[in-house]
Write a structure and sequence with these properties.
Endonuclease, Chain A
């Protein structure tokens, strides 16, 4: 077992301990599949662990998901997807991030940076600190997750394809033909105005593409719409920012600027 696999097993063991039940390791859903190979067969993609009773999936994302690692990426070899392994990994990661919430399951991603790790991404196995960190990650069932998942489902219904974000801190990124949408989501909060201001600032930092085909989205619950609309519609139009409202019933409304 490689160091990466040992780290993943360690993290999933912590999850089992916190949840009080063993997850299904390397579980494969029939609806989560890779690209067709030479025979046309589409293999089912595994998830690291699945807890059916919690409707929870956890994927451990090592450093190869966030930066090029030649030993993992194998840039000289093309996969059935027509791209090298590193690009295929990102493609399949995006497929998991889209498909899992769309099927009513919660997906939690855990990275070395979330735990006690060295600069190369290897875990130091500081058990008490790691256990506390994983417990917090698994407890994140806040409204922002609901808003984000509802918006992803709406995007798919509207013909968009969610993709792995260019900036890993982006909540949602999707493409439709030549169009690209970069989104920041917020959940219910007591600090609606402050959260809206922070979200606009986060979008501004991600405006690195001058193409008019790239637009930006602020996605908020109904309770935060008025705070988000404090930025005048004309300013939002100039900045190519669209405002989306997610209702209490998870419906999505595009608030025209």
């Amino acid at each position: 077992m490689s160091g990466e696999e040992k780290d993943k097993a360690y993290v999933l063991d912590l999850c089992d301990e916190i949840l009080g039940v063993a997850g299904l390791r390397e579980h494969r859903f029939d609806w989560l599949r890779g690209d067709p190979g030479a025979t046309g067969r589409q293999a089912r993609l595994p998830v690291d662990s699945y807890w059916p009773g919690c409707r929870l999936v956890v994927d451990y994302r090592g450093v190869q998901y966030d930066r090029p690692v030649p030993i993992f990426d194998k840039p000289e070899t093309l996969t059935v997807s027509g791209v090298h392994r590193g690009e295929q990994r990102a493609l399949y990661a995006a497929r998991r991030e889209t498909g899992i919430p769309a099927h009513g399951l919660r997906l939690v991603l855990i990275r070395p940076a979330d735990l006690d790790a060295d600069g190369s991404g290897r875990l130091r196995r500081t058990r008490d600190a790691d256990l506390a960190s994983v417990r917090k990650l698994l407890a994140r069932t806040g409204d922002e997750d609901r808003v984000t998942d509802a918006f992803r489902r709406w995007l798919i219904a509207e013909g968009w394809t969610p993709v792995a974000p260019t900036d890993k801190w982006t909540d949602v990124e999707a493409v439709r033909g030549d169009e690209r949408l970069v989104g920041e989501a917020k959940g219910r909060t007591e600090e609606r105005g402050t959260d809206a201001d922070i979200a606009y600032g986060q979008l501004l930092r991600r405006m690195t593409d001058e193409s008019p085909a790239t637009r930006y989205a602020l996605i908020v619950p109904t309770s935060s719409v008025k705070a988000a609309e404090r930025v005048p519609a004309e300013v939002r139009r100039l900045l190519r920012i669209d405002l989306f409202e997610v209702g209490d019933d998870d419906s999505v409304i595009h608030r025209a600027s």
